[in-house]
């Protein structure tokens, strides 16, 4: 009945997903930038050894040893030492990068599933295309039960899952500006070649598309060969990236996108499609859960309420700050129409000492060294390249980008890594600043705190949401 949202970079990590699944609901890990998370966790010494425990279970021989040799630091790196960088994504990755992607997704799912038999899902952004196939394969090797993808139109995913399950080669077209099919804008993956023979057997995970409109829902069921298995219908109050408003009505007085009647999905259409669906965005109360069920939903997806629980991946200091701001009724969530390099609106908490403040944003030196939200393009000579409107302005313009696109863009990759304690130490010795993305429900998240308490657990959220609902 409850799907825990796949949030940020490792905010919904394996610890949170395991707690939710173990409680009988569906925990979801975030697959975004999970290869960078893996290598930085290894450089912190893998406290307690969970990554190395998952490495021992990886089913393809000879893959994890090189990763350990390159990135593991016994006892952890010095606090002021920079993290060793991993290779940035590309359409034709090296075997080392491919291994990192496959193994990282395997590790996160395997740890989330360890010790129980309840379903576990993984969440991806359709916008981040280069690592998609290898990520899906790694998650499937670990037995992931559900795949959730939003922030785009994931038409190719059902067919890819079918072929991966059958051990067949797969390919996916990537959005490369100005490219035609003759320019070969594809990523490819062959399970047999990767495994060096007969690939391990995997089960096909159930695929849920994250959508904001019944029009997209209908599109994703039109072709029986590529039809999705169900939907998460996400409203504009949901955390992280939101779909842009369908009506171009400009911005509100506060500078936020204006959503209207055209942005309300027709649930009757979804009921007619006959596939299960979950409601998301503002469904973090028992009343909203009951309402979703009365509309024919299977249940709800809730993210924000879980983001600040004890098991989430956010740094404890961030959780404490947000909970106190919420308790004092002074927390503000701003839907930033231009902050994300993706072009999608993104919800940002207005917190002191973060990049949400103009002076903090202006003081940060732009750099693009993780590159997950870059876009591929074809230059005038027919060569493929990558650019991001949050990278150094002169670099973006030199690559053919529009100067106007750089205004207000924020490096979510580096900030979201900092949110979970894995931020890079910049070359001047200062830490990468944070930027907290969250849903509108963050303003009232203190309601989960027990009387006199300063933290709460995932189980508290589940108990609250299911209050008064018979689940047996």
Helix percentage: 25-40%
Strand content: 5-15%
Q: What's the total count of β strands?
A: 15
- The end-to-end span amounts to 11 Å
The average pLDDT value, as a whole number, equals: 94
Query: What composes the largest sheet?
Result: 8 strands, parallel
Radius of gyration: 21 Å
Q: What is the overall number of helices?
A: 17
Judged by helices, strands and strand pairing, the structural class is: alpha/beta
Molecular shape = globular
Walk me through this protein's architecture:
The protein is of the alpha/beta class and 472 residues long. The chain has 17 helices and 15 strands. 31% of the residues lie in helices and 13% in strands. Strands 1-11-10-9-8-4-3-2 form an eight-stranded parallel beta sheet. It has a three-stranded mixed beta sheet with strand order 6-14-15, with no helix packed on it. The chain has a two-stranded antiparallel sheet with strand order 5-7. Helix 11 (286-294) links the parallel strand 10 (277-280) and strand 11. The protein is globular, with a radius of gyration of 21 Å. The model has no long low-confidence stretch (mean pLDDT 94).
């Amino acid at each position: 009945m409850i799907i825990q949202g796949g949030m940020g970079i490792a905010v919904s990590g394996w610890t949170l997903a395991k707690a939710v699944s173990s409680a009988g609901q569906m925990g979801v890990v975030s697959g975004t930038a999970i290869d960078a998370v893996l290598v930085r966790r290894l450089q912190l010494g893998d406290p307690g050894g969970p990554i190395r425990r998952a490495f021992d279970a990886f089913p393809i021989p000879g893959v994890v040893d090189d990763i350990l040799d390159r990135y593991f630091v016994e006892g952890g790196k010095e606090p002021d030492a920079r993290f060793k960088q991993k290779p940035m994504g590309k359409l034709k990755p090296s075997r080392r990068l491919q291994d990192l992607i496959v193994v990282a997704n395997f590790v996160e799912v395997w740890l989330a599933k360890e010790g129980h038999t309840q379903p576990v899902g993984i969440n991806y952004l359709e916008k981040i295309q280069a690592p998609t196939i290898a990520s899906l394969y790694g998650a499937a090797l670990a037995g992931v039960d559900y795949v959730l993808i939003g922030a785009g139109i994931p038409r190719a995913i059902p067919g890819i899952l079918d072929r991966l399950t059958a051990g067949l080669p797969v390919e996916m077209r990537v959005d490369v500006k100005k490219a035609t099919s003759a320019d070969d804008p594809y990523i490819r993956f062959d399970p047999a070649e990767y495994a060096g023979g007969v690939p391990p057997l995997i089960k096909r995970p159930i695929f849920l598309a994250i959508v904001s409109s019944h029009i997209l829902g209908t599109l994703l069921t039109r072709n029986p060969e590529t039809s999705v298995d169900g939907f998460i219908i996400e409203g504009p109050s949901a955390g992280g990236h939101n779909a842009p408003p369908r009506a171009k009505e400009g911005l509100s007085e506060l500078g936020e996108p204006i959503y209207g009647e055209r942005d309300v999905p027709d649930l009757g259409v979804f009921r007619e499609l006959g596939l299960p669906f979950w409601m998301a965005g503002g469904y973090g109360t028992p009343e909203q859960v009951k309402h979703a069920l009365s509309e024919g939903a299977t249940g709800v997806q809730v993210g924000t309420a879980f983001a600040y629980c004890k098991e989430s991946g956010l740094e404890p200091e961030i959780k404490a700050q947000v909970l106190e701001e919420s308790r004092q009724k002074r927390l503000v969530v701003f839907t930033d129409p231009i902050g994300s390099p993706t072009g999608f609106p993104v919800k940002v908490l207005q917190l002191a000492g973060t990049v949400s403040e103009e002076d903090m944003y202006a003081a940060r030196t732009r750099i693009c060294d993780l590159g997950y939200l870059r876009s591929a393009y074809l230059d005038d000579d027919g060569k493929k390249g990558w650019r991001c409107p949050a990278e150094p302005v002169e670099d973006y313009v030199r690559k053919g980008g529009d100067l106007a696109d750089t205004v207000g863009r924020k490096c979510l990759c580096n900030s979201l890594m900092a949110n979970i304690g894995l931020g890079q130490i910049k070359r001047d010795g200062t830490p990468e600043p944070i930027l907290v993305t969250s849903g509108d429900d963050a303003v009232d998240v203190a309601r989960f705190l027990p009387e006199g308490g300063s933290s709460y657990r995932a189980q508290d959220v589940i108990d609250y949401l299911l209050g008064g609902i018979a689940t047996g």
